[in-house]
Amino acid sequence: MPPTVSSPDRIRFGSDGYRGIIGDSFTWRTVERLVSGTIEFLRRSGHSGSTIPIGYDTRFMADSYAKAACIALETAGFKPVLASEFCPSPYLSYSVKKLGAPLGVMFTASHNPARYLGYKLKGPEGGSSLPEVNRAVEEYAATATDEWNPHLVFGPDLEYEVFDLSGDYIKTMTGYTGKKLGGHSFDLTIDFVHGTTALLYRRALEELGVGFNPLHTQRDPTFSLRKPEPLPEQLEELFGWTEAGGKSAFGAAFDGDGDRLGLIDEENTFVPPEDIFAICLLHLIEDRGMSGRIVKTVSFSSLIDRIAREFSLELVEVPVGFKHSTLELLKPGTLAAGEESGGIGFAFHLPERDALLTLILVLSAMAERGLSLVEMRRSIAERFGHPHFLRSDIPLANGRQVETVRKRLAEVAGDPSLIGLKQAELSTLDGIKLSYPEGFILFRFSGTEPLVRIYCEHAVMGEEKALLQRAKEYLFGG
Fold first, then answer.
1. CB-based contacts of 258: which residues, under 8 Å, 6+ apart?
2. The domain over range 388-476 is classified in CATH as 1.10.150.110
């Protein structure tokens, strides 16, 4: 979808909520309209007076915006409850369901750079709010007439009712651990990226008996001038720790709001999301005897298709944005859902990505099988092959460039030979996807940032780079 465009007339949600640059497209007025639109939706849905949990991340002003939302909701006759501390998005989703709330509000920009802040809605099912909810809030926000003073948060001290379900959340996580996890020793370093996971996830892992060396646990709204996303280019320090740790050392990293996980194996190699999902799936299917439909986003690796075929499991492909996976996870008989960007959800928990649960399952698999990450990855490659994947995010300078790229993408969709493909099957489920015998290439406009994303997979190493380069040259050439 095209990049989110801020205008005085319309606020549009991206793949997961609304995000904007603090002081530019994310302002007090923006929050006022978003909260007012949310209030109107709740009223028209018959939820006046309901309890509404509100969470916030470690970014600049996130807690103040959350408190302003509390004031507005209380003024409108609702019962807002504020997280007792900055918290991961999955924990807020868990709390919405636990409290029986019709909706939850999370102030976070997830993995986006520090200058961004965002507004996510969580549904009563315990996952991302459904597309129809987001559309309704957008509509009501566009015509919002309720006026309230968010700047009250800077006045005399106000009291906010808080909620703390961290003990319940940790107890729930304990029930998902493998039998051998508590007694297994790991040479593990975890990067908490100065984000929301530094309190709750750290405490949960310690209570589960997982030994680890913690990095970046202090709150820092700048994220040490890094993007809080668990990608290789953002994990230089973690790579240093795993390299210095020796042959048994490996690393894990969460994103800014705790719904995505990154791993570095014992050979100091970044573990791609498809391998993480594969490890979890094989552990659940083979070690725990579980089964069910597997859901993946249109941008995710064909490795998941091969695993589904191996066990005769139904595979469902959905657009990018976990709200689409939420719909599938709510359907009976679904096992898990994964996305290319590293978010994984499990239907037996919540219809929501949860990086802590993903890490627990990976560690449980290692303990249960007595294998390292490297050994498990080799086993997967031997059984299912090893497709080579590459993604490139290309910033768009202005509206004219957006239109030029859109026009050239339409040309490529009609004639794949323009980028060197002899034959390809076209899908427009989300963006433009060209599938060929050895892999696929997908073009999508970001829903949260002014850029176009290109995803490419090929069975032969190096060919994915060559195809990606040809695509870039065609889209951005003279």
1. 88, 89, 90, 91, 195, 196, 197, 200, 201, 354, 355, 356
2. no
DSSP calls for 452-478: EEEEEEESSTTHHHHHHHHHHHHHH--
Same CATH topology for 173-384 and 388-476: the answer is no
Is 9 buried (19+), middle (13-18) or exposed (0-12) by CB count in 10 A? Answer: exposed
Burial 322-352 (b: 16+ CB within 10 A, else e): bbbbbbbbeeeebbbbbbbbbbbbbbebbbb
Note the pLDDT of residue 5: 38
The CATH number of 18-164, from 3.40.190.150, 3.40.120.10, 1.20.1250.20, 3.30.70.3400, is: 3.40.120.10
CATH number, span 173-384: 3.40.120.10
Q: What is the DSSP string of 19-52?
A: EEEBTTTB-HHHHHHHHHHHHHHHHHTT-TT-EE
Q: In the chain, count H helices and then E strands.
A: 14, 20
Per-residue pLDDT tens digits for 417-441: 999 998 899 999 999 999 998 999 9
